Amino acid sequence: MCDTAAITAALARWYDASARVLPWRTTPHERMRGIRPDPYRVWLSEIMLQQTTVAAVRGYFLRFTERWPTVADLAAAQDAEVMAEWAGLGYYARARNLIACARAVVAAGGAFPSERAALLALPGIGPYTAAAIASIAFDRPETVVDGNVERVVARLFAHEDPLPRAKPALTRLAATLTPHDRPGEHAQAMMDLGATICTPRAPLCGLCPVAGFCAAHARGLAAELPRKAPKPEKPLRKGLAYVCLRSDGAALLETRPPRGLLGGMLGWPGTPWSDATPRPAPPVPGDWRACPGVVRHTFTHFHLELQVLALRWSGMQPPCPGTFHEGFDPRALPTVMRKCWELAAPVLEADPRLR
Length: 355
Ligand code: SF4
Hints:
The chain is of the alpha+beta class. 41% of the residues lie in helices and 11% in strands. It is built from 14 helices and seven strands. Strands 1, 4, 5 and 6 form a four-stranded mixed beta sheet that branches. Strands 3-2-7 form a three-stranded antiparallel beta sheet, with no helix packed on it. The chain binds iron/sulfur cluster. Iron/sulfur cluster is lined by residues 152, 155-156, 197-198, 203-205, 208, 210-211, 214, 216-217, 222.
């Protein structure tokens, strides 16, 4: 029989001494005084952290909260400003939902709800994020299960059924550990344990505060768990991207359709991405130059290879849906479009015919 109370007590002691310092968290001094983190900062961090690492999120979070310190500030921002600030973080539907959610919160009075069900009704907040906000920001006894927590629980209970089939069982097991005393700190302690000690390949069981309760450790199975069902191969799609600069440095860019991949983001015009060899369809006539190499990028469901063609154009208005953007800054582009720019920039720079 697993001693869940002893596990949560050991975790709480460890968290009080070893919690990661993260910009969206309260300081240890604030925690001692019972001060809870700002729900706006918890929400923003949880949206950014979906399928993204803490290291990647940290800089974005600091820039966002410096520019938009409150949910009301973010709600009042222009969509294009938020999308540009999000560029490079990926999964752009999150940014569109971020704007919609901030505006919904402000329209309802400006305060995030504290209950899971009310949080779930907001744009872009799914079951995991609702549980995380309710738990971390409002200390509700919700069970918060991300990839780190799944790994910790699979090992603590030596649950050998493979993921993703094991998800519901791991959530039920995690719920048996959720305490009524300081559930918000418990949720963060489980995440921290998975991120820093109970790591995927080589768990540091010798440093683990719950090693004495861990079934996988006792049975020598720790590094093998959680088991995972093999993932299907991702298909390869191909396309062409057209990087066009006007002679004054303005860049020919399209705003992608609001729904779908990279929705609402700026991008170079190009062909559709498909498994067939792309047929050229340049957005403006001209002596397009093929850039050496290809851009490779992996999305959730497919790998992408883009050939890039470059042109410096002497006209003013393009005869196509895109528009020329003055003050072009590649940092406002999503990563795959930035990669196209990195391939095209030396070609535009080096070929005298393109100057
Ligand atoms: Fe993970 Fe090892 Fe701790 Fe078990 S003892 S929870 S496997 S780090």
